[in-house]
Write a structure and sequence with these properties.
Chain D: Its main location: membrane. The complex is a heterotetramer. Chain A is α+β, with helices and mostly antiparallel strands. Chain A has 16 helices and 18 strands. Chain A has helices at 56-65, 113-124, 142-146, 175-178, 197-201, 249-259, 272-279, 308-317, 320-326, 353-356, 360-370, 389-403, 414-422, 442-449, 474-484, 489-506; strands spanning 37-43, 70-72, 78-80, 83-88, 94-99, 156-160, 163-167, 209-211, 220-225, 238-244, 264-265, 285-298, 377-383, 406-412, 429-435, 510-522, 527-528, 544-545. Chain B is mainly alpha-helical. Chain B has helices spanning 2-9, 37-46, 48-65, 67-70, 102-138, 140-155, 158-169, 173-182, 185-200, 203-210, 215-251, 263-270, 279-306. The longest helix of chain B is centred in the middle third of the chain and has 37 residues, at 102-138. Classes of the chains: A alpha+beta, B mainly alpha, C alpha/beta, D mainly alpha. At the B-D interface, α1, α6, α7, α11 and α13 of B face α1, α6, α7, α9 and α10 of D.
Chain lengths: 546, 311, 351, 307
Amino acid sequence: MRGAKSAKWVAGAIVVALAATACGGGNDKGDSAKGGVFRMGITEPTAIDPFNAQESEGSLVAHNLFTGLYKVEPNGKLIPALAESATTSDDGKTWTFKIKAGTKFSNGEPVDAEAFVRAWTRVADKKSASDVAYHMAGIEGYEDLNSGKSDKFAGVKAVDANTLEVKLSAADFEFDKKTVHTVFAPVPKVAGAADNKAYNDQPIGNGPFKMEGAWEHNKKITLVRNDDYGFEKAKLAKVEITILNPNNTSTLEYQGFQAGTFDWARMPTPQLPVAKQKYAPKNQWVEADTSGINYLVAFNQNAPLNSPDARKAISYAIDREAIAKGVFQGMQKPASSVLPPSFADVYQEGVCTTCVKQDVAKAKELAEKSGLKPGTVLDFGYNTGSGHEEWVQAVAQQLKDVLGLEVKLNGKPFKEALSEQKDKKTAGLWRSAWGADYPTADNFLFPLLATGSINEDPATGAAQGDNRGRYSNPEFDKLLDQARATKDAAARAALYKQAEKLAVDTEQGLIPLWKRTQYRLANTAKFDNVKMDFFEDPNLAEISAK
Amino acid sequence: MTELTKSTADAGTAEPAAAPAPAAASAEPAVARVTQWGEIRHRFVANKLAVFGLVLVLALFLTAIFAPLIAPQDPYHQDLTNTLQDPSGEHLLGTDALGRDQLSRIIYGSRIAVEVGLASIFLACAIGVVVGALAGYFGKATDSVLMRVADVFFAFPLIIGAIVIIMAMGRGVMPVIISLAVFSWPTVSRLLRSSILSVREADYVHAARALGASTSRIIIRHIIPNSIAAVMAYAAFSVGGAIVAEASLSFLGVGVSPEVPEWGNMLAGAKDFLGVKDFLWVYPSIAIVLTVLGFVFVGDGLRDALDPKLR
Amino acid sequence: MTTSHITAERPAAAPGDDETPVLEVRDLHVEFKTREGIVRAVNGVNYSVRSGETLAVLGESGSGKSVTAQAIMGILDSPPGRVSKGEILFRGQDILKLSEEERRKLRGPKMAMIFQDALSALNPVFSVGNQLGEMFRVHQGMSKKDATAKAVELMDRVKIPAAKARVNDYPHQFSGGMRQRIMIAMALALEPDLIIADEPTTALDVTVQAQVMDLLAELQQEYAMGLILITHDLGVVADVADKIAVMYAGRIVEQSPIHELYKRPAHPYTRGLLDSIPRLDQKGQELYAIKGLPPNLLKPPAGCAFNPRCPKAQDICRTDVPALVPVTEQDGAELVGRTSACHFWKEQIHG
Amino acid sequence: MGSYVIRRLGQMVVVLFGATVVLFACLFVLPGDPVGSLGGDKARDPAVVAELRERYGLNDPLPVQYGNFVKNLAKGDLGEDYTQRRPVTEILAPKLTNTAKLAVAAIVIDIAIGLLAGMIAALFRYSFWDVLITLLTTMAVGFPSFVIGLVLLSTFSVKLAWFPVIADGSFQSMILPAFTLAILDAALVARLMRGTMLEVLKADYVKTAVAKGLPRRTVLFKHVMRNSIIPVVTYLGISFGSLLGGALITEAIFNWDGIGLALVLAIQQQNNPIIIGVVSFGVAVFVVLNLIVDLLYAVLDPRIRLA
């Protein structure tokens, strides 16, 4: 979910450029508290309680308040946290986790297997209406609990204080990787039900930091070091998180960084080239291709894009390089695969052959072959107010110029956009983006391309899942099933690669555009070891003041 | 702009208009005899500002009509290798973030401005005149009901109301026109109604009635011609306001589609480059300002010409 | 003369120095600058009024009678209006030479004015008590409470019923006659030496007119003030005025003691005015009206300004401006206080 | 007076009713599911959507939904937003404070600049200052708020760096948006004041005041001012109402965290409870301010009888 709401790779609606307006002196007493104070800005999260923390802002806070079974490195590698060991049954359906003994929540309650059962049940409960509960959908008994038929989570069991047994309804040898999501965090008894407003605004957790006071909505969230943390303690004494206006957060963050009030910042896209020039030499520029993809949904089941050739013609007609340079001023990189480079084991650069370079001749040829004649009307939808207006126009123009299509741009607000994408009758293209929730290839391929992710509503025909382009190929679905049930990591990766090639290259089920490239400024003058983590947030638990 | 026309036109939702309040300037029926058109024209032409305004408005109309002949380039033509170019011989007003010629886009932008400005106000006047005439004619319950309906639409701030309608209808030129008209007509109908009510008591109407003229005849022959003057002055004045409202909607990203060359769209795209590429917002702003001033001057001139005592 | 502290204990009867008039206007000229040119609204007016005396100034609108009054009070709209020539002697002193502040201090305690339309002349947003009391507060530094008490007293004096209850009412809450009484009370407040009443009864019903006029006359007698009564209605002044000055196009065309004028007008214009009063004994006859319109002061006719409308105009009337000359009996005997500005006054007065 | 107020309040209820019906009708026909997404690219879990639709009564027919809305509104409850599931009133309260701050600042500027300029122009009619003020106020009408906003922002924040580029709620950051909002109104107030004052200066009662021997300042500041400000007060009252309803453009340009900006964002995200909350509030404020202005009018001008 992260990245979605804030759409941070292109700044929000109103972005005001800054001509280096450092205003007022920053708060420099940071070092007075032992360990230092790290300051940053975010937009108002949807929730910081793990039951519903979802976008990058919410998970930033939740990740630092809670420690789950595993942590993840930026490259997708799992690091055991509370899980001292994990064993998987040969059918891949039963997972047994040994929980590290003796750690406590900051209110003194023990972190045991029961804390996980309690937490997961709380999440999946119907009444919680958790937006992120579906990550648990593979666990046995989820259906019953989530539909209100039961108030127990049948597949989750505390065998003893330190043993957690999880039964899945289908084989999944990568279940452990899913648990890096904050929705799998343990909670203490005081958490109560999901609608416990007091806990929602001031969660008590077992993470490296704890809340100092409650969440002041639209103002700030303050974290202080948890000195009773059961793992290597954080070095920072305090983290001050200012909640900024969602309209132009990146501008505010950038301004704050320049003024010395923030130690970490995003930047508005038009400012990136200037900022890079200024801060890269100071070693304060952080840049990474993270676990996400920007792509075009091509509606596979409706004309005119109901043939692989037609979709390939579109892909060939787009000059990704020119737009990356002309519109994004070189700050976006063309993508040639769906899986991101950060997933080293499955990354295949150039797997999408049509993505590598614009090819006018091939585009025309394929268009001709597939009946995508000049003058064909092509709807091209996008959601408004998120900074997509410019580049979609550029793509539309290229499709007009190369293929002579009559491209109809269709800008809609989020909800309308979504409802239109879901509609069975929708045809043409729609801009979209995807960010991984956990470091698995499956987290891209299944939701975006599997038949099961269409999840058509029998009543309305709307696609309720994320595969709104409605790519559907039994062979692909079978490859994914096989991969999930393959214990050996290398063999599994090979299957995923094969699946990606089939869906993205052979059949062009969707059209990759650019990588998810993230840029940050980090105050390396005052802090050591500042990095961007898997979730595109600063690695607060490891930062130390100079 | 919109607030201006609304609140000066009619301060309250009800009666207190008896006071000698010049505030109610535009609401006060400009009781011009229809036979005085010559004199009205004379007074208008004598008003230098009004003539200047007329020149601006005519220039706008000509630009809109002959845009394809005047514009040096296709306003949609993108040149991704030449984005954000400063003004030069090749691109007199520079290029935008997609390398499109800004001068051409400003020239074509006049079309949307004219289209939306005229159509929305025409529609508003049409609805307003009908409702106002009905309310003024029938009075009593009809009047109360119609005026309450007018109050409802009057109570929405223009931009906010328009956004709500556009959300329901979708973006585009037609929704913008309709949404602006929907929240502009109450001013017209109030204007017409109060004008009818006051004219109804005028001596020449009493005289006509005494001579046995029917009510409908009185309305058509005496009341409407005398009230329509006020509506016309309002209309001229409001076209500028409607253009601003339309540009505001596009600026907020809810007006016409962003690829359409339109001034509000241009500003919306330009604000990302404030302080970096200022020519991107300066020139469209100038176009808007001149246009609005043109209509305001014409409107003012018309009002003064119709009713010189209001000067 | 310029002291502003004139206490209420001042004797009611003014120091009646009969030799010095309270007010004397000498060769007064007032002009207005307009876009079309200079309008000479007053062209050499002379008149005077003594304590206890009532001078009626008669004329159509635009004749300069009100402008003269405003010039005396010092409330001309300036610009565009200004006194271009002449003197206004108040108790012998030329008040045109005083500073604005000195003149201000004359207004109220020394001279006061009653306007035609009390509804528009009273400020609509202040209570009458406030507006009456203001005289005392500003000129005598009286407290708000005392000033209100004085206001009630004044209202009693001008016979407004239930004065105490109505002192906080607003002007629009009074009837026309009552409002005019309030105007009168306001003018009388500081017992000035001179009151200028500009058409005080024009806006009133006929019955009320008489009451207000009587009240004015009564109070004038009581306080022995000089009164300049400006009117266009000969009927109104007959009973109250001592003498009369008839104005036409910025000039005085005839001056006379009141009753003589009615008997024997010495100017065709006055004749016309008299003939246009409806009279019971001429019932059934067509009412006389002076033909034509008042002159355009931007382009006054050459010669006598009245000539285009005069039934008896001769060539000389179209070339020479007639001077204001003393009028005599046929035998040359002096007629005290009578003057006329007609080339043919003799023919007019003696038939 | 009492019965007048009661009647007007009755009318207000009718107007509010009508306005919210229009609002509901428009939002109801929107194609998107109000709880269908959180504004991102991912679809919301159908189970969650179903649960939330149930919880917020979105499956009820429109009239029932509207009825519930009115019932809650009467209790001062605007419901919960569908994202954070927090009470709308709680979300909007601090933003309303910010909007009110800005509105008050703008009105203060209107009064200070508008009244003064109008007075100077009227008192020194045809002077240099009059011509200058008339020219400026005439020009100002042609400048939409987004143009003024961009000009002020680029000049005083970006180029001169006198003010922060993005409002943070501080007094300093309030100055530019307040001016942006105020310039047009100040110009109109100045024009109104000039016109009214010229009218009043010609009035008989001003002559009376002079003839009474009142000092010039008493004539001007008591008799002239008191009558001249009546229409200005009326105008400012209405203007204040529209400012309180949220200045969308200005708040958006300056990133002022008020209800106008909240509305802009809510529209982008189709956050219906917030849209309904802000728009209903805007309409209510406008209607209430209108009533207040009419009552004020009666207080300022005793000739007005409210009936």
